[in-house]
Amino acid sequence: MLRINEDRLLTDLRELAAIGATTDGGVDRQALTESDIAARAWYRRKIAEADLEYAQDGAGNQSAILLSAPPSEKRILAGSHLDSVPNGGRYDGSLGVLVAFEALRALKDAGLRPPVTLEAVNFTDEESAIMGLMGSKAVVGQLTRTDFERSRVDVEELIRRFSAAGISPESMLAATRDDVLAWVELHIEQGTRLEDAGLDIGVVKAIVGIRSIHVTFRGEAAHAGTKPMELRRDALWGAAAFALRAREHVMRKYSPGVCNVGKISANPGAFNIVPAEVYCALEFRHDSEAEMDQMQADLIGLLEGCADEFGLSVTYEATPPVIPATMSESVMGAIERAADKLGLSHERMLSFAGHDTQNIADVAPAAMYFVPSVAGISHNPKELTSDADCVKGANLMLHTLLELCDISKSLPHIAPRRHRRS
Ligand SMILES: [Zn+2]
After folding, report:
1. Ranges under pLDDT 50 in the chain
2. Where are the chain's structural domains?
3. Pick from 41, 183, 26: which is nearest to 90 by CA?
4. Measured in angstroms, how far is the CA atom of residue 314 from the centroid of ligand 1?
5. What pLDDT is recorded for position 377?
6. How far apart are the CA of 378 and the centre of ligand 1, in A?
7. CA torsion angle 335 341 347 348 (round to 10)
8. N or C: which end of the chain has fewer CB within 10 A?
9. Are 6-207+324-410 and 210-318 in the same CATH fold?
């Protein structure tokens, strides 16, 4: 059976990890900063050495391309991202790009011309140094000018970074593609379910949606000594009660959904003043949009109940949601057949983190799979996936691409989603 070149893959991983390397073994390659630009130059060089075609689109997404003969109109894409979080690990994203690239090289080495053109893609700014999932958002036509205004870096810095990669806001807005036949991504799990269950592969069945709500409880400031406790309208009591009740309710009723109160700040904020106003950042995630609607209604009910109980008022404001993305049955099937062929154990699971795959799923059959993360550590220099698991993941990519080529004529057409993420 056809296999990837293990030594070449692992050498690539080591070479790439040296770009933007931190002293503690991690990498810092925030999107389109000097180290990310260096990683991109490295990838381009490797593609040239492999004698594959190279392309960069208007969003700065880079592709290694193995053309079919004759070149097909539509293409099967695989990949991930080479950028990292500040002081991140060497596997998140990188491994996904490298296994796709290695799969193309292995096919080329074997003298195989695929029936459909294949691309190994590095998506720009997955990790939110600028806005997050930026390159894939551009590809599926969901990027808007407003997104640039919401960028995490100021305009001058944005333009500086874009020009370092040879792109501009205009080229990004024009980077929409309509030639994607299917998409597959390998990613590290960033959790412990595979390790705990002793499984090789997690086939992602859905990427959860995310809703974030700004909540403010309002009571009344008072002297923290003289005001009798039974007469206080302490906004923090409402917030504290809510955080615990939301935990209990979501665990009981919405598992595997999750919620988080990630920030609480009290005003005026002093030892000797009863808090008049408390801000909470509430977030919750689930793979079902209908369940999320119900979850939101329940959580708002809890907010109002807690406010009432402590004599407070409460207001809330939702930010634009991330819609859950269901993975394609055709692509999941291809991953599973390839895993069976390779003797890899697998199970379907949810992704609780966001990935470029959720954007591509809007326009093409898409799916992703996980390889184990040692101790689940991620977004951390200690992030680790064993060499053996990297190799398994790469062979699975190679055979998944072959499976997708086999079913390329019967892959479904995806109608773009009604809800637009903004
Ligand atoms: Zn990632």
Report:
1. 418-422
2. 6-207+324-410, 210-318
3. 26
4. 36
5. 95
6. 9
7. 20
8. N
9. no
Residue 265 CB neighbours (<10 A): 13
- The whole-angstrom separation of Cα 55 and Cα 41 is 12
- 93 CA to centre of ligand 1 in angstroms: 4
Predicted local confidence at residue 415, as pLDDT = 74
Chain centre to alpha carbon of residue 125 = 11
**What pTM, to 2 d.p., does this model score?**
0.92
pLDDT tens figures, 291-309: 999 999 999 999 999 999 9
User: How far is ligand 1, taken at its centre, from the CA of residue 130, in Å?
Assistant: 15
Distance from the CA of 355 to the center of ligand 1, in angstroms? 6
CATH no., domain 6-207+324-410: 3.40.630.10
pLDDT of residue 417: 61
Q: Which amino acid belongs to residue 118? A: L
Q: Give Cβ neighbours of residue 23 (< 8 Å, ≥ 6 apart).
A: none
CATH class of 210-318: alpha beta
How far is the centre of ligand 1, averaged over its atoms, from the C-alpha of 382 (Å)? 15
